[in-house]
Amino acid sequence: HTRDCYVSAPGKAILHGEHAVVHGKVALAVSLNLRTYLRLQSTSNGKVCLNLPNIDTFLSWEITALQPLLDCCREHVDLKQELDDDLLKRLRAYTGIADASTDTRSMAVLAFLYMYLSVFGEAESLASITVSVWSELPTGAGLGSSAAYNVCLAAALLSARGIIPSPLTPQQDSARWSKEEMELINRWAFMGEKIIHGNPSGVDNAVGTWGCFLRYHDGKITPLDRVPVLRILLTNTKVPRSTKVLVSGVKDKLNKFPAVMKPVLESVDAVSCTCEQTLTEMSARGPSAEHYNILEELIDINQHHLNVMGVGHSSLDILCKITLAQGLHSKLTGAGGGGCGITLLRPETDALVIQSTIEELQACGFDCWETSIGGPGGGPRILRHRSGPRHQIPSTCC
């Protein structure tokens, strides 16, 4: 019997190390307390339904039509590290999604069907379910929205199939899985990320799974223990950009001016390591004003590094100028060239200062949220359904 469940997973931001990480330097990634939510319901209508109200997508497939696709994936249920290209090809043909399609809707559908068929491939029969996913995260803003989606899918499907248990007790509103179960969720979520992004680093799904703060260096991901929660403003300039173009621009600069750019990358590495050290101290001794001064200086230094690399943008300069006038410090997060920025809030920052900063940024046409990074329980959580804006299914769900 398939179990109903509710799951949630966080977005992600990069605190330090964007672009330098591509060249073997340390990056710090953090969970963002803007989350994606999923409800999986067991049904008896012989259909698999997927509702994605944020992107106005409501689809259903007959189980009898999906069953023939299973023949090619029965031996892949043990989750080989490589994607099953044959199954993906069949799914593209079945859904009519062309090889060249990379739009959000197509990729979300492919990732869902691939995971659904792989997880239930060994079962006696495919499960009749309805999956609804909605999010507080904007798509395409470099905030890990696809990874949060994939983490939720992996956790819910594995739980529904009984591969991982539901860790909730009657007294709890939310609970997390064991380390081994989280590793399994992470591996499946990485599969979904491969479908959507081709060759992802694994950072986004790792943050979505483990939450809190992660150190990423040369492909090795290390969760940081006992790190304080930091309050931030997150600003989306809504300026579109291509990560690929920005990454290759940094590479060109490095090739053209190696003697100039290599020390810049070394300096970024030192910023990440100094920040990590400061956060560790904050946990051990309790946060002080001096710790916040260091974090603010590192933010300013790293933002200058990113401008030197050529990934800044006039919209991000405006963000830094507005926040600095209020005594706050900001930097871009992610690929740059527009996109998003983060602003550190100190514990004593006045609520009126925060409010007027948000209003001023919104007046520039930016979206702005007050949120936090690195919180405990930042990874996927199984939820007991309760009312409230975060857990209500948008009314457009069928």
UniProtKB/TrEMBL annotation:
Annotated signal peptide = none
GO CC terms, sorted: cytosol
Residues of the GHMP kinase N-terminal domain: 124-206
Every copy of the GHMP kinase C-terminal domain together lies at 294-356
Q: What is the enzyme's class at the highest EC level? A: transferase
* Catalyzed reactions per annotation: (R)-mevalonate + ATP = (R)-5-phosphomevalonate + ADP + H(+)
Q: Name one GO molecular function term.
A: ATP binding
What EC number(s) does its UniProt record assign? 2.7.1.36
Q: Which PROSITE patterns match?
A: GHMP_KINASES_ATP (PS00627)
Q: Which UniProt keywords apply?
A: ATP-binding, Cholesterol biosynthesis, Cholesterol metabolism, Cytoplasm, Kinase, Lipid biosynthesis, Lipid metabolism, Magnesium, Metal-binding, Nucleotide-binding, Steroid biosynthesis, Steroid metabolism, Sterol biosynthesis, Sterol metabolism, Transferase
- In what pathway does it function? Isoprenoid biosynthesis; isopentenyl diphosphate biosynthesis via mevalonate pathway; isopentenyl diphosphate from (R)-mevalonate: step 1/3
Q: What is its main location?
A: cytoplasm
- The superkingdom listed in its UniProt entry is Eukaryota
| Region (Disordered), start-end ranges | 379-398
Q: Some GO term, biological process aspect, for this entry: which one?
A: isopentenyl diphosphate biosynthetic process, mevalonate pathway
Any Pfam family hit: GHMP_kinases_N
> Where, per UniProt, does this protein localize?
Cytoplasm
Summary of the function given for this chain in its UniProt record? Catalyzes the phosphorylation of mevalonate to mevalonate 5-phosphate, a key step in isoprenoid and cholesterol biosynthesis.
What protein family is recorded? Belongs to the GHMP kinase family. Mevalonate kinase subfamily.
| Protein name from the UniProt record | Mevalonate kinase
